[in-house]
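Now read this:
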Amino acid sequence: MFTNTYYKTSEFPKVRNAQLFAWPVYSWEVYLSSPKGRTLNLFEKTILELIRVTGGRNLTVAQLAEWLSLEEDMVSYILTSTMQPNGWLDKDFKITTEGINLLDSEEVTEMTSALIFQCAVTGKWLPRIAYQFTEVQPVGIDKNLAFKLSRATDRTARPYRVKHCIKGAQQPDDLMLNDIVKKDRDARWVAFNVRDDLDIPDKSSDKVILSPKSGHAAYLMVWADQSSGYKFDFIDPFGLSHTPTWLNELFNQACNDLPRMGQFALSKFNPENEELTYAENLQLMQEKARLEVLIEYPSANKISGLVDPLYELINDKQKLASSNGKDFSLNRGIVTSSGSLIESICEALLKIYTYKGIHRLPSKNQRDKKEQIESLLKQAAKFSPAQIDTILDVQPDKIYATAKGWNTSLRAMLATIFLSMKDYPHHPMKLVLNDALLFQDIYDLSKKRDQASHKNPPKFEGKQALHYINVVDKFLKTILAD
C-alpha cells in the first residue's frame, strides 16, 4: 500500500460523465508570505513602491518598463486595468491614500503553510500550490475504494488508484521551489484578472521556505471528463483553467510508463484494436473522430483545434436526446462546452485575422476610451446601435490586451474581432453581423457560460442546452460558409 492519505484540493466537479483518479504524489509542506488584505502581485507591488519613493516626480511608462524588464504595453495594461480602477493610483498615476495603505499592510506579512506535489509516477513537479486542501476518507465497508461526493446524497465515486513508480520523495531545491511559485502565481494572475468565468482567490507570494518536515506519500484526487467519447480530458484539480495541458501531458506519459493504466483507459472507450497501446489507439480514435466531424462540418479543417470540441458537441447532442433533457448536469456541461467552443473559434480567428490597428486604440491616459472604440467600430463595419452597445460591454483595456495576444475573455475577443474587420473586407464574422438573432445568441451564450461555470450554477433545462448546441452549429456553418 502506497498510502492511506487522500487529498482533495477543490470541490468535486459537477460533471456527469467523468472518471475519478487517485493520483500518487509526494507532498511537501512549504511556508509562504501571506500579505493581509487584498494581495498584490510582484509587478503591482514594485510599481507602487517605485512611485511612492519618487514622491512628486513623474515616472513614465518607459521608465517603469525598463526597471521591471517588461514591455511598455504590459506595464500600461497593469496601470490602467488594475491599479487605477482599484483606486491605488489617481488619473495622473500618482499613488493615492488607498495605495499607500495597501503597501503598508503588505509590509506586515504573516506566513501561511501550503502544499506542493511531486508526481510519484513520472517524477515531475506539479506547477501548482495547494493553498487549500482537505484530507478525505474513503467510505463503505467493502474493500473497493470509494468516496462520497455530497453530504446531501449517498452518491459515491470509485477512483482508479494509479500505481506509483518512484519510491521515496525527492526534496526540492530553491530553484525548483521558486519555479513552482512563479508558475502558480502566473496561472492565478491570468485566472483572476482576465477571464470572465472564473472566480479564483488572488493568492500570490514572492517568498517560499521549505518546511523541515519530510515529504510524505499521498494520493491527489483528480477528475477526468470522458465527454469526448474517445479520450480523457482532465479537469484542473486546482480550478485555475479549463484545460490543464500539464495534467493531460502527465497522464499520457503515465499511460506509457504503466501499461495496465493504459489498458484501463482503453476499457472506458471503444478501442479500435485491443492489441495496440493506449497511445496508438488514441491516434486511431482521433482520426475516426476527425472523419466524423468532417462529415458534419466539411470545412472544419479551416480552423485548427476544432476536432475534439466538435466531436464532443456531436456526442452531447446524442446524449441530450437519450436523456430527454432531464439530466441537469449534462445540460450544464453542454452550456459550458458550447461557450468554450465559441471562445476557441474566436481565438483561432484572431490568429488568422490579426488586428492591425493597435495604434488606433485609445491611449492609457484617455478618459473617453469607450467613445473612441465606438468610433473605431463604426469605421470597421455597419453595426446597429444595439450591437454597438452589446460589443462595448467590456473593459477597453481587455480589448487592448486581446489585440496584443494576451489571454482575455470571450467578449473581449469578439470586440477585437469586430474592430479588425476594417482590415479584412471579407472577414467571415461579417456574416454573423448580418444575422441579428445569431449575434445576440452568441453574446447570450457567453453570459450563460459564465453562470454555468460558477460554484452554484442555475439549473439549465434540456431545451436551453439544445438551443445553445444549435447556436454553435449555426455559428460554425455561418463562418465556414464557402
User: Anything to note?
Assistant: The radius of gyration is 24 Å. The longest strand covers residues 18-35. The chain has a mean pLDDT of 84.
